[in-house]
Structures are given as structure tokens and as C-alpha cells.
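Re: your question from the hallway

Yes, I did run it. Sequences:
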Amino acid sequence: QQQVKQSPQSLIVQKGGISIINCAYENTAFDYFPWYQQFPGKGPALLIAIRPDVSEKKEGRFTISFNKSAKQFSLHIMDSQPGDSATYFCAATPWYGQNFVFGPGTRLSVLP
Amino acid sequence: ETGVTQSPTHLIKTRGQQVTLRCSSQSGHNTVSWYQQALGQGPQFIFQYYREEENGRGNFPPRFSGLQFPNYSSELNVNALELDDSALYLCASSLDREGSYEQYFGPGTRLTVT
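Structure:
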């Protein structure tokens, strides 16, 4: 029940296209859903996050869509750029916020 | 505002040895969490420290232990190293405040056990 599932495992998108990564969870105690971006040899960097009281949050080219009833959330990267090529992790943490549960990651490659 | 820093960057140890990894939290943050990230996988929660006390633990054996100091910096200690302990160890700092969930990660320490 602590697991966060993530798909696809890898994604190839042309420059200017839309990248979409999906995550699903089971634990209804999860109350905060961040997305992290990780480049090789670096730590994960917080991109954008959402709470279950909203269905969508947008920051620049990054948008989170959240479906509470389906227990699913997704990251959309608009106008994808080669510099966006990285591994993306969704995560979730319960309302008591002790630990983040991470998905297995999606390796995104944006072709020039 | 300074970010999360970790030392050392890389470390090579032999099976059975002990290792200590260090983390300085982001300025103003009072909570530190440690994660293990195996190659090609997502980070796995080890434990969290708040006010120098362990405040939650993941599914890791007791040979993984930690400390938090009054300045909120932290150490991760691993005893009796095993080959499977080879991984990137990440420290994340946060502010324990109602409604605040953001965790900010350091660059990690790459541990190789031979």
C-alpha cells in the first residue's frame, strides 16, 4: 500500500513536444505529491508539487494533473527541450509527512 | 540561503567495514531525512531526524544508524558493510512546520562496497 507506481519507464520526445509521465498510488493517507528531476550524478531537484485539494497546478512549462478518485497524478512538460532530458520521479508522502515514497523513475530523452 | 551539502562525494569501502556520511541541512531547516538510491531506482527512505531524535524509519536494518546535531547537521553510519549497500546516499532537509512538506536534496554520496 506504500508503493507508488510510475510509467512509462522511458520516454523519447521530439523538441517542442509534450512529455507526459503518469503515477498511481493506493495509500489514501498520502497528502502531498511532488515531482523531482534528477540529472546523472546529482541529487533530485524539486520541480513542482500538489496537494489533493486541487486538480491541477501549473508552473511555467510544468503542469501536474491530479485525480483523487482514481488515485492518479501526472506530470506534463510542455514545449519539451533537450535540457529537460533527465530522470523524473514522482513521490508521495502522508499527511504526517515522515517519509517520501518514490516511484521507480522515468528516463526522458528530448531529441533536438 | 545555502543549499544541502554532503560529504564525501565518493567513497570506496570493503565489505565488513564501517562508514560515516555527513550532511549539512539547508539554512533554516530543522529536519533531515536520509535516502538510499540504488542504480536505476528511486530513492528509498532510511530514516528522518528532528530535534536530534529519530522521527521515523524505513525498512532498513539496525546497522544503519544516524545522528543529528544541535546545528541540524546529520550523520549516517553504516556498520558491517555489505555489497548491496553500494548506492547513492541522499540527504534531504526540510522545515517541520504545519502544512510544509517540501524536502530539498543534497548531491549525494556515492558509496561503493567491494
